[in-house]
């Protein structure tokens, strides 16, 4: 199950994520990061090579966790309905528990250099392939009606990916409850009658 990505990153990366989420990648200087860390900006280069490396570490932490979640869901098997519920639950939990990292991921990944962007795109494509395979499995098993797996996948992904904007842990629903409701909306739209 998803855990906080900050369990696996350095305090410098965590501080950079907070600043990038509030001020944007280009709006945050190395001096800003250094001040928050409590060192001179030049001293940061003992620990990192560039500001882009910090951005890549933030983006990669979300990508890696999301892709690992999908791999675990696919490996566990089960019905397509059960797997879609797991996708929604894990994705919302990942975003809800790592809101600053998710904000940076969704807003700033295109600030990475071309080769680093390609790694993000490849990871996204693998995740989306997993999601489409679940939907296809559901169609083939008769759980879901005939539908375009790509469009159905885009619908669920679009719902989930905006959670970083509106989700609040102080809200009336937990991430699991929200995930269940979102999955139910999609599943009802796909269900074979």
Description:
With 193 residues, the chain is mostly helical. 70% of the residues lie in helices and 0% in strands. It is built from nine helices and no strands. Helix 1 (11-23) packs across helix 2 (30-37) and helix 4 (80-97) runs antiparallel to helix 9 (175-190).
Quick structural summary:
With 193 residues, the chain is an all-alpha fold. 70% of the residues lie in helices and 0% in strands. The longest helix has 27 residues, at 114-140.
Termini separation: 32 Å
Q: Sheet bearing the most strands, described?
A: none
Q: Identify the overall geometry.
A: elongated
- The share of residues in helices is 55-70%
Structural class: mainly alpha
Helices and strands, in order, run as HHHHHHHHH
Number of helical segments?
A: 9
- Rg over CA atoms, rounded to whole Å, is 18 Å
Poorly predicted segments:
none
Q: For the residues shown, what is the average pLDDT?
A: 90
Q: Tally the beta strands.
A: 0
What share of the residues does DSSP label as strand, in percent? under 5%
Write the layout of secondary structure elements.
Layout: H1 11-23, H2 30-37, H3 51-76, H4 80-97, H5 99-108, H6 114-140, H7 149-161, H8 163-166, H9 175-190
For this entry, give a set of tags.
9 helices; 70% helix; elongated; mainly alpha
